[in-house]
Recover the amino acids of this structure.
């Protein structure tokens, strides 16, 4: 058989970056809320920094489940084609993406896109970064004026209903019990099992509004919107910033409920051997994957407690220095799937997930984030999220998963998965923001 010839485009991609003095975070959030219906299809926001973007200057053409390595190679080719205009501020070009959890068990298509425009807010400054296959003819101000005309949806968020997809909560609890049995049998040490529910609204889901609400309610999480995938993740798979690498590993959870104080919940979490064990597996998987690509790694001895409005997590922030030339996409490829979303050992857990979950996770629990032309970027794990049904814009698939170890109790895991669904259910609330 003759190997297919890979033809990489060598035509230039023009990049222009412009400093905008009069656009602040609220303007970006207004655009975020305008959402895909207004052409704002990509976003990444946390606290008072972030980016919103739209249009397509270049797109990785991927098939269902294509691996991250393909995206990495495509981006390397794109980087060579970038030509910054002379009047540019020098800001790097940015691509947004999201990858599948398990390339072998999905019909979902991963994404990596260099948008036509990105509004980037960082360190109190806003920059417009534009990319185009043809030289710019109109001034940046023309685009800014057009963006300023975009408005959030005028109609209230529609009412919606939920149904379990595949396994209902009881059937899923039974799968958790089967997972525990396999662990006790000695097949593996940890497996993360997820369940899915489908939210169907009376009118198309307003993804931008969901994203804005998620950012309002979960400002410490990374709110993302990439090609119909929207969520607010508390877990940073990997960030690379001028060679410094950080990863926030989460595993071990307690739901916030009733009148129990955060202090009491935190004490229960930090003394739970089941949660500590679950956490250790996740940290070990990240540390071992990073060690090949980094030096000077720092892994704290004990986790801290990350407090969110719906749950408390055991958290460990790993830091390291990336070897010269390693891009964030290569780190993402090395780290995914960590034991926070798959299990230990990875391959055994991945097979068990496919067997027990009866679910196509799609891009849920895969990496989601951005990479720039310097190879820097930030990629969260797509958790606490929903994916729009491409055939029905009124339907959103919501997911929640739980780490299972030998001591896990199926009913407690169902309760934990319910707590993890709270952010998306809250964001879907009908009515005005
Ligand atoms: C798989 C999910 O969460 C992971 C991340 C943090 C804590 C987890 C846990 O305690 O089970 C999970 O490993 C999810 O939210 O769907």
């Amino acid at each position: 058989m003759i190997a297919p010839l890979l033809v990489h485009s060598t035509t230039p991609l023009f990049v222009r970056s412009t400093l905008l003095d009069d656009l602040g975070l609220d303007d970006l959030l207004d655009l975020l809320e305008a959402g895909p219906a207004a052409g704002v299809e990509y976003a990444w926001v946390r606290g008072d920094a972030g980016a919103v973007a739209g249009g397509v200057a270049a797109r990785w053409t991927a098939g269902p489940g294509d691996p991250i390595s393909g995206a990495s190679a495509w981006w390397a080719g794109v980087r060579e084609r970038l030509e910054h205009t002379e009047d540019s501020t020098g800001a790097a070009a940015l691509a947004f993406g999201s990858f599948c959890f398990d390339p072998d068990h999905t019909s979902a298509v991963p994404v990596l896109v260099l948008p036509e425009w990105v509004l980037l807010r960082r360190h109190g400054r806003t920059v417009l970064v534009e990319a185009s296959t043809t030289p710019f003819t109109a001034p940046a101000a023309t685009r800014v004026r057009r963006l300023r005309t975009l408005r959030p949806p005028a109609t209230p968020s529609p009412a919606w209903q939920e149904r379990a997809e595949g396994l209902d909560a009881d059937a899923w609890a039974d799968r958790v019990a089967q997972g525990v049995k396999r662990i006790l049998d000695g097949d593996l040490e940890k497996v993360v099992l997820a369940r899915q529910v489908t939210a169907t609204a009376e009118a198309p889901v307003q993804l931008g509004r969901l994203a804005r609400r998620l950012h309002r309610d979960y400002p410490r999480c990374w709110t993302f919107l990439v090609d119909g995938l929207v969520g607010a993740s508390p877990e940073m798979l990997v960030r690379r910033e001028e060679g410094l690498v950080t990863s926030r590993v989460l595993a071990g959870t307690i739901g916030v409920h009733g009148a129990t104080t955060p202090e009491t919940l935190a004490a229960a979490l930090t003394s739970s051997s089941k949660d500590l064990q679950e956490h250790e597996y996740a940290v070990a998987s990240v540390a071992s994957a990073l060690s090949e690509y980094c030096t000077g790694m720092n892994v704290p001895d004990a986790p801290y407690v990350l407090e969110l409005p719906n749950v408390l997590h055991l958290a460990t922030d790993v830091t390291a220095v990336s070897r010269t030339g390693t891009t964030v996409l290569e780190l993402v490829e090395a780290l995914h799937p960590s034991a926070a979303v798959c299990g230990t050992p990875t391959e055994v857990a991945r097979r068990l997930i496919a067997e027990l979950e009866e679910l196509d996770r799609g891009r849920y629990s895969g990496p989601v984030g951005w990479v720039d032309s310097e190879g820097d970027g930030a990629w969260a794990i797509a958790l606490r999220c929903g994916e729009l049904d491409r055939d029905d814009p009124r339907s959103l698939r919501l997911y929640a998963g739980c780490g299972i170890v030998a001591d896990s109790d199926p009913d407690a895991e169902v309760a934990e998965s319910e707590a993890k669904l709270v952010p998306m259910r809250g964001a879907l609330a009908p009515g005005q923001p």
About this structure: Residues 43 and 52 are 4 Å apart (CA to CA).
